[in-house]
Every structure is written in structure tokens, then in C-alpha cells.
Amino acid sequence: MMDHEHYRSAMMADPRDPDPALRQHRESCAECRAFGDSLLSFESRLERALKVDIPTSRDVLPFERKAASAARTALKAGPWRRFAIAASVLIGLGLAGGLWLALPQRSLAADVVAHVEDEPQSWQPRDAVAGADLEAVLKDSKLRLKPDAGIVSYASSCYFRKHFVPHLVVQTESGPVTVMVLVHESASRPVQFNEQGYRGSIVPVPGHGAIAVLMRGAAADPPGAEAQALQRIAERVSESIDWST
Amino acid sequence: MNDEVGGNRRRARFQALCQTLRPDLLRFAFWLSRDRALAEDVVQESMLRAWKAQDSLLDENAAKPWFLTIIRREYARTFERKRLITVDVDDLIAKEEPVLAAAEEQDLSEMRAALFKLPDEYREPLLLQVLMGYSTAEIARELDLSGPAVLTRLFRARQQLRVLCGEDAVPDGEA
To answer: Which residue of A has its CA nearest to B128?
Structure first.
């Protein structure tokens, strides 16, 4: 036989509980019926309180553009346009002196790493992205890539920090390097980072935000040399972009 | 060609699904985070993740809990990534005042402020039950809790809400 306390505890946990035993107790106990009515009134207020209107400034669902971009990238039509190899950008390996700094722009670096972690497929070896597809990805950011940027094996327009940005993977002699063109970000000076298995650099591009480059896995070169190399890759990519489009 | 048509159809269907579910998901994210801007970010990112993982949604009827799980994970990831600092709940209430205000019913504003003050472990199962219509078993599965633990949290959630709204507490016999 259900008592008042059990009824009230059960109702407090789930006022809409259709358990026949609860209903039976309610019908036989005026005190609990009054409590139940009061609780249902409270519940109704709770339901209405939760139904807030949340005005949103975002009319376009990001995946629409993302999906369109991914579809373009996935098309494997036509001869691959091979850009000149970016091997030379690693020449500076002998130049030591780059510091593996702590992270004054940690949040940007962390967000870049988090984004790249979310797209593990971008690292998979594959043929170069067709020129038209690459152009389409860059066009979202009103950019063009000059034909000497290197082999781009992945290109996607990605939603990052409230903007769509080009996310590229460029094949270099040191392996694949992710490049994110961050025209909406700002950086006052080059910053190196090393976290969660990714090493990279964020390089300012005067008047055009910044470029992030990163590699994954253990460093093959001394930290200073690799930092220098990454920075040079970023600079090379920056030089290969036609920012004026 | 067929692939392209199929892809377009799939995209349109997925888009329609998102449009339908978005208001509820946004509300859920808002009450979870107590921050409208963050809620928008979380829902936006979650939809991108959902788009990428849409093959894992085998039954469109299960879309809501599927999205909800993605949102909860995305919110947790945001928390880890940004290392959100603890803030005063009164500041949160003041910041979201335009959303919480209910000009026509003062007691709704009061209830909303009380909801903001509920600890996460009580607020979340309550949201799942009242806002999303989850059963106790579904909440237990989503939050990885036992059924009795869910009932206890729901009891305490309502208990605290009642007190915060100036109503009498109910003797805590079971919980």
C-alpha cells in the first residue's frame, strides 16, 4: 500500500508518471490529490519557463556550405593540376634559432589543433585536389593559389571560429602539412606550438590575418630547426596566395 | 549523376531534419550552458559533426536523441577546450536577461532564474525529462546513471526549484 511520502517522492521525480498505483493513491487521498494538483501546476509553469525563445543571428546552417564544399572536393574529374613541389621550403632546416615558445596565442593554436583532430581523414594520402575544386574552396575566402604552392591533397572550406576558412593539406618532403588560412584572425608575430601530438606555427600575414601550419607525429628534426621549417612553409604558402582576388 | 542526385536528396533531407529539430536543440543547449552565444556555437558545431557522421544515423526517428548526444559531447568538449572559468550565476542571469524575461508572467522569469541556479547534475536530467520528453530509462542511458539515481536527481531538482521559487520543500523520504 502506497503511503503519502512515497506518492510525493514519486511525483516529485516524475509528475507525469502514469503508474496506476500512483493514480489509485491520488484518488483515495485528498491531501495527496491537492499536493498532486499543486505539483502539476508547478510543472506546467516549469514547462513554459523552459520554452524560451532564442533569437538566432545565424540563418544559414553551416553544413550546407560545408557539404557543398566537400562535394566539390570529392569530385575527381579531370587531370590533376600539380603545383610545383614545396620541397625548397624546407631548405632552412640548417637555420637554427627558432624557439619552441610557450603560447601567447594558445587559444587559437588549441582551436586549430582541435579542428584538425576532428578531420583525421584530411591526412590520408591521396591524389592532388583538382584545380577547380581547390579554386572553389579558396573562392569562399576570396583567395586564389598561385601554381607554385605545392601539391594540395586535401582542400575543404571549414567552419572555424565563426567563419569559413580554407583548410588545406600540402604535401612536402617532410610529409603532409596542414595549412589553414585564417583571414579573420590576427597575430602580431609568429608563434610556434606543440600540443596533443601536433607541431605547428601561426604566422601573421600583414593585412590578411594569419596562416596556421601544422604537422603531426614526433618531430624528425630538432625543435628549433623544425619550427623554422614550419614557419617557412607558412610564409611560402602565404606568398603563393593571391590575396587580391 | 545518380550519386549526385542521391547526395542532393540526402542533403535536403538532413537539412530539413536539422531545421525541424534546431529550436529544441538550441533551447537544450541554452539551458545546458546558460549562455546563448555558446549554445549557438555548440549547436552549430554539433550540426557539422552530425553532417559528417550522418551515416551512423540509421533511423531518422531516433534523430533527436542522436543529435542530443552529439550536443552534450560537443558542449563537454567546448568546456575542456576553452577551460571555461566559473562565473557567478547572478552574472549569467543578468547577461541572459533578454532571454529569461517573460513580460507577461513574472513567475516564469522567477522560474527561469531558479533554473539557472540549479546545479548541473540536477538541471541536466530535468531538461531531458521536461524539455526533451525523455523517460527515466532514457535519461539513465544518456547520462550513464542508474534509474534510481536519475529519480533522486529529478526529485532534488524539483525540490530546489520549489524552494528557489518560494514554495514549501517536500520531505526528502527517498532521495
So the answer is: A50
Beta strands in chain A (DSSP E): 144-145, 151-160, 163-172, 175-182, 191-195, 198-204, 210-216, 241-242
Query: In the predicted model, what is the mean pLDDT of chain A?
Result: 73
Residues of A in contact with B154 (CB under 8 A): 12-14
pTM attached to this predicted model: 0.55
Name chain A contacts of B165, Cβ cutoff 8 Å: 42
CA distance B175 to B152: 5
Q: Which residues on chain A are in Cβ contact (under 8 Å) with B159?
A: 12
CA distances from B113 to A145, B31, B105, B162 (A): 52, 11, 13, 12
Candidate from B49, B99, B174 with C-beta closest to A54: B99
Q: State the angle between helix axes of B63-82 and B2-33 in degrees (0 to 180), rounded to the nearest 10.
A: 60
C-alpha–C-alpha distance, residues B138 and B152, integer Å: 15
Q: How far apart are the first and last CA of chain A?
A: 79
- Going by the DSSP 8-state scheme, the letter that residue A141 receives in this structure is T
Q: Do residue B11 and residue A50 have CB atoms under 8 angstroms apart?
A: no
Which member of A45, A66, A114 has the closest CB to residue B51? A66
Instruction: Quote ipTM for the complex.
Output: 0.86
Q: For residue A99, how many C-alpha atoms fall within 13 Å in the half-sphere facing its CB?
A: 6
Give the residue numbers in A contacting B (CB under 8 Å), as ranges.
5-6, 8-9, 12-14, 39, 42-43, 45-54, 56-58, 61-64, 66-67, 71, 107, 110-111, 114, 118, 159, 162
Top mean-pLDDT range of A44-53, A153-162, A228-237 = A44-53
Grid cell for residue A78: 579531370
- Give the span between the Cα atoms of B43 and B26, in whole angstroms: 6
* Euclidean distance between CA atoms A230 and A237, whole angstroms: 11
Tell me how far apart the alpha carbons of residues A84 and B83 are, in angstroms, rounded to a whole number. Answer: 42
Asked if pLDDT for residue A243 goes beyond 90, the answer is no
Rounded Cα distance, A50 and A92, in Å: 59
